Protein backbone atom coordinates (compact mmCIF):
# COMPACT_ATOMS: atom_id res chain seq x y z
CA UNK A 1 0.00 0.00 0.00
CA UNK A 2 1.35 3.42 -0.93
CA UNK A 3 4.24 1.87 -2.88
CA UNK A 4 3.29 3.40 -6.25
CA UNK A 5 5.16 6.18 -7.95
CA UNK A 6 4.75 9.63 -6.49
CA UNK A 7 2.41 11.60 -8.80
CA UNK A 8 4.42 14.27 -10.63
CA UNK A 9 2.12 17.09 -9.50
CA UNK A 10 2.60 16.04 -5.86
CA UNK A 11 6.37 15.75 -6.34
CA UNK A 12 6.57 19.22 -7.91
CA UNK A 13 4.46 20.81 -5.17
CA UNK A 14 6.54 19.07 -2.51
CA UNK A 15 9.68 20.53 -4.09
CA UNK A 16 8.37 24.09 -4.26
CA UNK A 17 6.87 23.89 -0.76
CA UNK A 18 10.04 22.68 0.97
CA UNK A 19 11.57 25.18 3.39
CA UNK A 20 12.00 28.00 2.95
CA UNK A 21 8.60 28.17 1.28
CA UNK A 22 7.43 31.00 -0.96
CA UNK A 23 4.36 32.94 0.20
CA UNK A 24 3.21 33.22 -3.42
CA UNK A 25 2.93 29.47 -4.06
CA UNK A 26 -0.12 27.60 -2.75
CA UNK A 27 0.84 25.11 -0.06
CA UNK A 28 0.27 21.37 -0.37
CA UNK A 29 -0.82 20.28 3.12
CA UNK A 30 -1.35 16.56 2.52
CA UNK A 31 -2.10 14.08 -0.21
CA UNK A 32 -3.66 10.61 -0.40
CA UNK A 33 -3.69 7.80 -2.93
CA UNK A 34 -6.97 6.27 -4.04
CA UNK A 35 -7.40 3.59 -6.71
CA UNK A 36 -6.65 5.27 -10.04
CA UNK A 37 -6.28 8.78 -8.62
CA UNK A 38 -4.85 10.91 -5.87
CA UNK A 39 -6.34 13.61 -3.66
CA UNK A 40 -4.46 16.71 -2.56
CA UNK A 41 -5.34 18.83 0.45
CA UNK A 42 -4.27 22.39 -0.35
CA UNK A 43 -4.10 25.65 1.53
CA UNK A 44 -7.28 27.70 1.04
CA UNK A 45 -6.82 31.40 1.75
CA UNK A 46 -10.08 33.13 2.63
CA UNK A 47 -11.38 35.29 1.08
CA UNK A 48 -9.84 34.44 -2.26
CA UNK A 49 -10.77 33.98 -5.89
CA UNK A 50 -8.96 32.90 -9.01
CA UNK A 51 -7.69 35.93 -10.89
CA UNK A 52 -9.70 35.16 -14.04
CA UNK A 53 -13.01 35.17 -12.12
CA UNK A 54 -11.91 38.21 -10.12
CA UNK A 55 -11.32 40.20 -13.33
CA UNK A 56 -14.57 38.96 -14.87
CA UNK A 57 -16.51 40.26 -11.86
CA UNK A 58 -14.54 43.45 -11.18
CA UNK A 59 -13.14 44.41 -14.57
CA UNK A 60 -9.51 44.59 -15.58
CA UNK A 61 -6.84 45.60 -13.10
CA UNK A 62 -5.43 49.10 -12.99
CA UNK A 63 -1.72 49.37 -13.73
CA UNK A 64 -0.72 49.75 -10.07
CA UNK A 65 -2.55 46.61 -8.96
CA UNK A 66 -1.40 44.68 -12.05
CA UNK A 67 2.21 45.59 -11.21
CA UNK A 68 1.82 44.26 -7.65
CA UNK A 69 0.25 41.05 -8.96
CA UNK A 70 2.96 40.63 -11.60
CA UNK A 71 5.78 41.14 -9.08
CA UNK A 72 4.30 38.43 -6.83
CA UNK A 73 3.90 36.10 -9.80
CA UNK A 74 7.52 36.67 -10.81
CA UNK A 75 8.53 35.92 -7.21
CA UNK A 76 6.58 32.63 -7.32
CA UNK A 77 8.05 31.61 -10.69
CA UNK A 78 11.61 32.48 -9.66
CA UNK A 79 11.07 30.33 -6.57
CA UNK A 80 9.81 27.45 -8.73
CA UNK A 81 12.86 27.79 -10.99
CA UNK A 82 15.19 27.76 -7.96
CA UNK A 83 13.58 24.45 -6.96
CA UNK A 84 13.95 22.94 -10.43
CA UNK A 85 10.26 23.18 -11.30
CA UNK A 86 8.74 24.48 -14.57
CA UNK A 87 5.03 25.31 -14.05
CA UNK A 88 4.06 25.32 -17.79
CA UNK A 89 0.52 26.68 -17.31
CA UNK A 90 0.77 30.26 -16.06
CA UNK A 91 -2.58 31.98 -16.62
CA UNK A 92 -5.12 33.95 -14.53
CA UNK A 93 -7.15 30.79 -13.80
CA UNK A 94 -4.10 29.31 -12.02
CA UNK A 95 -3.59 32.31 -9.77
CA UNK A 96 -5.49 32.95 -6.56
CA UNK A 97 -5.82 36.47 -5.25
CA UNK A 98 -6.64 37.05 -1.60
CA UNK A 99 -9.26 39.73 -2.07
CA UNK A 100 -8.63 41.46 1.26
CA UNK A 101 -4.81 41.61 1.03
CA UNK A 102 -4.11 41.33 -2.74
CA UNK A 103 -1.65 38.51 -1.97
CA UNK A 104 -1.18 36.22 -4.95
CA UNK A 105 -0.82 32.42 -4.90
CA UNK A 106 0.33 30.27 -7.84
CA UNK A 107 -1.50 26.95 -8.03
CA UNK A 108 -2.14 23.92 -10.25
CA UNK A 109 1.12 22.17 -11.04
CA UNK A 110 -0.73 19.49 -13.03
CA UNK A 111 0.97 20.52 -16.30
CA UNK A 112 4.32 21.10 -14.61
CA UNK A 113 7.59 19.34 -15.24
CA UNK A 114 11.06 19.15 -13.82
CA UNK A 115 13.11 22.04 -15.13
CA UNK A 116 15.69 21.13 -17.76
CA UNK A 117 18.20 23.08 -19.84
CA UNK A 118 17.20 21.42 -23.11
CA UNK A 119 14.07 22.03 -25.16
CA UNK A 120 10.68 20.58 -24.30
CA UNK A 121 9.19 18.67 -27.23
CA UNK A 122 5.73 18.07 -25.74
CA UNK A 123 3.34 20.89 -24.96
CA UNK A 124 1.45 20.98 -21.69
CA UNK A 125 -0.68 23.90 -20.64
CA UNK A 126 -3.12 26.23 -22.36
CA UNK A 127 -2.52 26.80 -26.08
CA UNK A 128 -3.57 30.45 -25.99
CA UNK A 129 -0.62 31.03 -23.61
CA UNK A 130 1.86 28.94 -25.63
CA UNK A 131 5.02 30.66 -26.87
CA UNK A 132 5.43 31.41 -30.60
CA UNK A 133 8.26 28.89 -30.94
CA UNK A 134 5.85 26.08 -30.07
CA UNK A 135 3.78 26.90 -33.15
CA UNK A 136 6.89 27.26 -35.33
CA UNK A 137 8.96 24.26 -34.29
CA UNK A 138 6.95 22.27 -31.73
CA UNK A 139 9.65 22.84 -29.16
CA UNK A 140 10.34 25.49 -26.55
CA UNK A 141 12.59 26.33 -23.60
CA UNK A 142 11.36 26.93 -20.07
CA UNK A 143 12.61 30.49 -19.55
CA UNK A 144 11.31 32.09 -22.75
CA UNK A 145 8.01 30.15 -22.50
CA UNK A 146 7.51 31.39 -18.94
CA UNK A 147 8.29 34.97 -19.99
CA UNK A 148 5.77 34.69 -22.84
CA UNK A 149 3.00 33.35 -20.58
CA UNK A 150 3.74 36.14 -18.08
CA UNK A 151 3.26 38.69 -20.87
CA UNK A 152 0.00 37.13 -22.05
CA UNK A 153 -1.23 36.99 -18.45
CA UNK A 154 -0.39 40.66 -17.91
CA UNK A 155 -2.15 41.58 -21.16
CA UNK A 156 -5.29 39.75 -20.05
CA UNK A 157 -5.24 41.36 -16.59
CA UNK A 158 -4.92 44.86 -18.05
CA UNK A 159 -7.27 44.50 -21.01
CA UNK A 160 -9.75 41.76 -20.00
CA UNK A 161 -9.63 40.63 -23.64
CA UNK A 162 -8.88 37.36 -25.30
CA UNK A 163 -5.24 36.42 -25.59
CA UNK A 164 -3.37 38.82 -27.89
CA UNK A 165 -2.28 36.07 -30.26
CA UNK A 166 -4.40 33.33 -31.80
CA UNK A 167 -3.46 30.28 -33.88
CA UNK A 168 -3.98 32.13 -37.18
CA UNK A 169 -1.68 34.94 -36.08
CA UNK A 170 0.89 32.33 -35.07
CA UNK A 171 0.57 30.70 -38.49
CA UNK A 172 1.17 34.13 -40.08
CA UNK A 173 4.22 34.64 -37.86
CA UNK A 174 5.51 31.26 -39.03
CA UNK A 175 4.96 32.15 -42.69
CA UNK A 176 6.66 35.52 -42.21
CA UNK A 177 9.57 33.91 -40.38
CA UNK A 178 9.92 31.17 -43.01
CA UNK A 179 9.97 33.79 -45.80
CA UNK A 180 12.60 35.87 -43.99
CA UNK A 181 14.78 32.82 -43.43
CA UNK A 182 14.56 31.94 -47.12
CA UNK A 183 15.34 35.51 -48.16
CA UNK A 184 18.27 35.82 -45.77
CA UNK A 185 19.72 32.56 -47.10
CA UNK A 186 20.12 34.12 -50.57
TrEMBL record:
| Domain spans labelled Protein kinase | 1-186
Q: Which domain of life is it from?
A: Eukaryota
Query: Which EC number(s) does UniProt give?
Result: 2.7.11.1
Keyword check for Transferase: yes
Task: Name the enzyme group at the top EC level.
Answer: transferase
InterPro entries with a match to the protein in the record: Kinase-like_dom_sf, PIM_Ser/Thr_kinase, Prot_kinase_dom, Ser/Thr_kinase_AS
Q: Which GO terms describe its molecular function?
A: ATP binding; protein serine/threonine kinase activity
Keyword check for Zinc-finger:
no
Per UniProt, the keywords (alphabetical) are: ATP-binding, Kinase, Nucleotide-binding, Serine/threonine-protein kinase, Transferase
Reactions catalysed, as given in the entry: L-seryl-[protein] + ATP = O-phospho-L-seryl-[protein] + ADP + H(+); L-threonyl-[protein] + ATP = O-phospho-L-threonyl-[protein] + ADP + H(+)
Identify this protein by name: non-specific serine/threonine protein kinase
Originating organism: Cirrhinus mrigala
Amino acid sequence: EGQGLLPLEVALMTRVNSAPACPNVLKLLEWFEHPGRYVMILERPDPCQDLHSFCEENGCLDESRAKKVLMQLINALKHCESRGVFHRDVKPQNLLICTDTNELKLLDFGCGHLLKDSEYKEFAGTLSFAPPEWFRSHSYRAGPATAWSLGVTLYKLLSARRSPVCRQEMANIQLFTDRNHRQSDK
